[in-house]
Design goal:
Strand order of the largest sheet: 4-3-2-5-6-9-7
Number of helices: 12
Shape: elongated
Strand content: 15-25%
Radius of gyration: 21 Å
Largest sheet: 7 strands, mixed
Bound molecules: S-adenosylmethionine
Length: 291
């Protein structure tokens, strides 16, 4: 293995060799801590059988570890100035392909079909924080075959993903992530593990995709409309949140009826409902709409 980039001296040497200029707009904070890198690899449970998608390889620090431990790595990097650097730092590996693209514009489903015959992949990344939510939700909603997503995100975002009802961090992101997966925070990572240092704390979170759905939902789109409406106006009651939403067309008295049938009080707030309760409410409302 070539000099590991997890060692800050080697990272600085590569950055100097290529006169690399960090681009804030791409959320570039490169990892320089071997113990964090090893923890990410261990917790992602990748094996020599796995096809791994890495989003934003930077100068290839984590890519080196992924290449050592998996069958195939596909790394998608938006910054074209990093491509020659990646070709250099990853030159020893014949199981890494690099794609110079914006991950939000890649048809990942088709990529998995072509490169892994549609079998589930593992996603491992130190994500650019400005697009964490669209990346993760995009992976889930587009029904890409996925086994798990192990990613570095902003600490607060990791906490929101893992939160349950009645806590201040609980919201639409918690419910969306938990609808598709079981989240587990692997480690908190302080700013000094990166170059340059981010202004916020970070955390590694593992989202293990559910094999079977944890709740039965007749109309997934309606479920997410209800969830969004419930948290749009956090201090409002559930009924008012739903009634005020332009996305929900049902009359207030009909929504009330559905809530009553489920034993939900008219004063309840969205933040008190579990995913299962949201699913039941969505099914009631969808049945009533179809009568
Ligand atoms: N993996 C490297 C590491 O751990 O040192 C770099 C992580 S850095 C937090 C995020 C990386 O994502 C940067 O290399 C950045 O250029 C890249 N990136 C930002 N936006 C992207 C996008 N839309 N598509 C693909 N890569 C992106």
């Amino acid at each position: 293995m070539m000099a590991t980039l997890g060692d800050p001296r080697n990272t600085i040497e590569v950055l100097n060799k290529y006169n690399f200029v960090f681009q804030k707009k791409f959320g570039q904070n490169f990892l320089i801590d071997t113990s964090v890198l090893e923890k990410i690899i261990r917790s992602s449970e990748i094996t020599k059988e796995d096809f791994v998608l890495e989003i934003g390889p930077g100068i290839g620090t984590m890519t080196q570890y992924l290449a050592e431990n998996s069958r195939q790595v596909m790394a998608v990097e938006i910054d074209k100035t990093l491509i020659p650097i990646l070709k250099d730092t990853l030159s020893e590996y014949d199981n890494v392909s690099i794609l110079n693209q914006d991950i939000l514009k890649v048809d990942i489903k088709q990529l998995v079909e072509e490169k892994n015959q549609g079998r589930p992949i593992k996603v491992v990344a130190n994500l650019p924080y400005y697009i964490t939510t669209p990346i993760i939700m995009g992976l889930f909603e587009s029904k890409v075959p996925i086994d798990s997503i192990t990613v570095m995100v902003q600490k607060e975002v990791a906490q929101r993903m893992q939160s349950g009802p009645g806590t201040k961090d609980y919201g639409a992101l918690s419910l969306a992530v938990q609808f598709y997966s079981s989240p587990y925070i692997v480690a908190n990572v302080p700013p000094n593990c990166f170059i340059p240092r981010p202004k916020v704390g970070s955390a590694v979170i593992r989202l293990k995709k559910h094999i079977e759905p944890v709740v039965q939902v007749e109309d997934e789109k309606l479920l997410f409309k209800i969830i969004r409406a419930s948290f749009n106006q956090r201090r409002k009651t559930l009924i008012n949140g739903l009634n005020n939403s332009p996305e929900i067309t049902m009359e207030k008295n009909q929504i009330m009826e559905c809530m009553k049938e489920l034993g939900l009080s008219e004063n309840i707030r969205g933040e008190a409902l579990t995913l299962e309760e949201f699913a039941k409410l969505s099914n009631r409302m969808s049945n009533k709409q179809n009568i």
